[in-house]
Amino acid sequence: MAHTILVQTNGPRLYELTSEITRWIDLQPIDDGVLTLFVRHTSCSLLIQENADPEVQTDLQNFFHRLVPPTTDPSMDYLTHTYEGPDDMPAHIKAAMMPVSLSIPVHGGRMALGTWQGVYLFEHRNAPHTRQVAAHLGP
User: Fold this and answer.
1) Which of 46, 120, 122, 134 sits at 20 to 30 Å (Cα–Cα) from 64?
2) Residues 46-86: tens digit of each pLDDT
3) pLDDT in tens for each of the 139 residues of the chain?
4) Which residues, at least 6 apart from 57, have a Cβ–Cβ distance to it below 8 Å?
5) Which among 95, 131, 129 has a CA at the least distance from the CA of 10?
6) pLDDT given at position 38
7) pLDDT computed for residue 58 by the predictor
């Protein structure tokens, strides 16, 4: 079973997809299998991360911004891909450091996530985007 999840983003942050994915899985005839997610863009990522305390998401965003700042930061003056804006090449670097696909076991019609885990799209660009996440559930 294949599906595309559209995610409207409005700047860099983590956007939780867990509920939307769960609703889609609920409609599928497969109770046990593997869910594969793949983001179709080169400047955002997919993560499984804590969904109980929003400070975790804030800290992750701040960490990666510090680790890979915009090209306007003097420490990034070696970058040459700058014509799409100061956040573009740093977004590509962040996406290269984090997963762009996930495999999640499904048991009894539910993702086998831990108690505090959620599935997130991590947007690395400043401008709003419509992101596509390809989902496949198979035996």
Assistant:
1) 134
2) 999 999 999 999 999 999 999 999 999 999 999 999 999 99
3) 899 999 999 999 999 999 999 999 999 999 999 999 999 999 999 999 999 999 999 999 999 999 999 999 999 999 999 999 999 999 999 999 999 999 999 999 999 999 999 999 999 999 999 999 999 999 9
4) 13, 14, 49, 50, 120
5) 129
6) 98
7) 97
- C-alpha–C-alpha distance, residues 94 and 58, integer Å: 16
Contact indicator for 106, 33 with CB cutoff of 8 Å? yes
Q: What is the separation of C-alpha 22 from the centre of its chain, rounded to a whole number of angstroms?
A: 16
Quote the distance between the C-alpha of residue 101 and its chain's center: 9
* Residue 102 near residue 36, CB atoms below 8 Å: yes
Grouping H, G, I as helix, E, B as strand and the rest as coil, residue 21 is helix
Cα–Cα distance for residue pair 111/122, rounded to 1 Å: 20
Tokens of 52: 């109980």
CA pair distance 104, 124, nearest whole angstrom: 23
